[in-house]
Amino acid sequence: MSKKRKSKIKWIVTGVIAAVVAGVAITIFLKPAPLPYESVVAKTGDITTYYSFSGNVETKDRQTVTSEKIMQVSEIKVKEGDIVEEGTVLIKTTSGDEIKSKISGEVVNLNVEEKAQVMAGIKLLEVVDYDNLEIKVKVDEYDIASLDKGKDASIKIGAINKEIKGNIGSIAKEGQIINGVTFFTATIDLEKDESVRIGMSAEVKVISNKVGGVVTLPMTAIQFDENNKPYVLKNGENDTVINAEIVTGINDGTTVEVKSGLVSEETILYAKAAPTVGMDFSGGGMNRTGGED
Question: 101 near 84, Cβ under 8 Å?
C-alpha cells in the first residue's frame, strides 16, 4: 500500500473518531441537568408556640425567727426537721415570753440552745414551707398582655431531669426597667414534688399560640421575594417551576402554618441549599424570651 493511501486512511479514521467524540460531547452537553430542587409534601398538623423563661425554685413562705430584745432561753419546744403549724410555740424565755411560728412549715437552721442568753437581733431559727414552691420570672412588657393569672405552665428542672406542672400565680402590676427594657415579675406556682429543691434552676414554658388541623410546611421550603413576601415553588406546565404566593401564620421555629395559597398533600419544591438568612415571619408567632439577669 502506498504511503499516500495509508495517510488518507489514517485521516479518515481520525476524523471518524473525532466525530464520535464530538457527538458524545454534544449529547452530554444537551442532556438536561437535574433540577437543583428537593420536594416536600404539605401536611395537616398542629403547631404550638411558647413563651420561655428561666428562674430558680423558691419557697412561697419563709419565717426567719430572731430575738427582738435581750433574752434568755428557758426552753426550746422544737428540734430541727420538725413540721410545725402556724401558731406553734417554738421557744420560751425565762421572762415567760413565747415565740411562735407565724407560718406552717419545717424547722431548719436552729441556732440557739436552752439556757442561752442572746442579744437583740440574733437569728434563732427558720421555718420554711417546702410544700408550696414557686419560680419568679421576668416577662417582657410586650408579652405581659398574653399571660393571665391561672394559665398553665410547664417547668423543666434540669438537675433532676424532670418536667412538672404549674400555673401563673401572680403578675406584678409595676414593671422594672433593666437596660432600657421594662420587665414585669410573674410568679409560677409549682405542683408539689418531693424531688424538687429550693434553689434549683428551671426553664418555664407557657403556651403563646396554638393551632390544630392546619396546613403546615417546613420553614426551609418557604422563599421570600424582594418585598419580603413569602412564596413557594410548585411544578408548572412543561416541567417548569412557578412561584406561588402564600400567607403564613404562626411557626414554632421549624414548622410554619400556611393559611392560604397551598392545600394539604400538595408537593412543594425548594432549593437544596435553601437560604435561611433574611427569613422574616413577622406576626408568625415567634416568641420573645424572658429570663433572670
Answer: yes
